Amino acid sequence: MTKSDPATVTIGNASGQFTIDTSADRIESPQWLDEFIDRYSAAWNSGSADAVAACATEDVLWREPSMGRPVRNRDGLADFVADTLRTFPDISYTNPFPPTIAGESNIAVVPWRMTGTHLGVIDPPGFAGTGKRIDLFVVDVWQFRSGLIARCRSTWDLAEMLQQLGIMPPRGSAAERALAQAQRWRSKLGI
Question: How far apart are CA 1 and CA 156, in angstroms?
Fold first, then answer.
């Protein structure tokens, strides 16, 4: 755990990093959080990128596995959501169990079940639509300012998604062993 400035604490590094804003608003109550989650999931399920982005602050910091780098503003979040909706037009979010309020009551841990059909290009890297469905467990960690998400760290298994779409070979398959062999050769050759 490191302190980068008086208002933040950074835990971990690289993909495991989450910066906690110690000045983030306290979450009013579990009921308030449930009502916010209802509004947020309705925005995603409506297919409106602007409605999802309206749930975040103008200077939101948003990290999630499919993005190469974090989004740092509401417009970037709207672009990310629009891209996701083009890729998975029927994407849907439901809560498999209740969220948790953690930390000094200023962190929400929110579980999701994300489902959808892969019809558009995943760009980058450019994977074409497969017509296959995803069904993934997602955990979001949120912090709020003025009743909106100011920080989001979304976590889900990218490898599992790629396997469900048939882009990455299943565990234990001949194709997975061939990829492992190719990686070992690249390592030996120093590539």
Answer: 22
Query: In the prediction, which pLDDT does 7 show?
Result: 58
- CB 136 within 8 Å of CB 160: yes
Cβ-contact 10, 18 below 8 angstroms: yes
Q: pLDDT tens, 40-53?
A: 999 999 999 999 99
Work out whether strand 148-155 and strand 2-5 pair parallel, antiparallel, or are unpaired.
unpaired
CB atoms within 10 A of CB 49: 20
Which residues in the chain belong to E strands, given as ranges? 2-5, 8-11, 18-21, 56-63, 92-94, 100-102, 107-117, 133-145, 148-155
**Residue among 39, 5, 44, 21 nearest 141 (CA):** 21
Closest CA to 84 of 138, 142, 34: 138
| Chain Cα centroid distance, residue 169 | 23
